[in-house]
Amino acid sequence: MRLPALALLCLSLAACQDAATPSVEVSDAVCRPTPNGRDVTGCYMTLTASTDDRLVSVSSDAAATAEIHEVSTEGGVMTMSEMAGGLPLPAAQATALKPGGNHLMLMQITAPLAEGDMVDLTLTFEEAPPVAVTARVGIPAAD
Ligand SMILES: [Cu+2]
Known about the structure:
Blueprint: H1 5-12, H2 14-20, E1 24-31, E2 40-49, E3 53-60, E4 63-74, E5 77-82, E6 87-89, E7 94-97, E8 103-109, E9 118-125, E10 131-137
Parallel strand pairs: 1-10
Antiparallel strand pairs: 1-2, 2-7, 2-8, 3-6, 3-9, 4-5, 4-8, 9-10
The structure holds copper (II) ion (CU).
């Protein structure tokens, strides 16, 4: 059986697939280690969506609960809270989750995370299909 010419073209051109299906690229995923019996940690990464999209939820086998958090400062006190409605991802723009800003929060972590471990995360988006990410456990780069 012969593949249609268009399908062959798509195999060789990554851009062809991008045009058809919304997608999100994830890079530099890192989760902080959990020393001293802490069962909560933050994860950071850079997300780039092909079309306007939104990160709506995150899950991990490594934690009972995972949330998308934003950080705000009121009266000099930094607090964090779950982002209502998720994290907006403007098309073709790198959106960074980083220390001191938006982050993913793993809670009720099942086993301590040590530097060098790997954590599997599943990110769910409004438009793009879910993305499986393997984050390394380590100290996130300061900016
Ligand atoms: Cu948090």
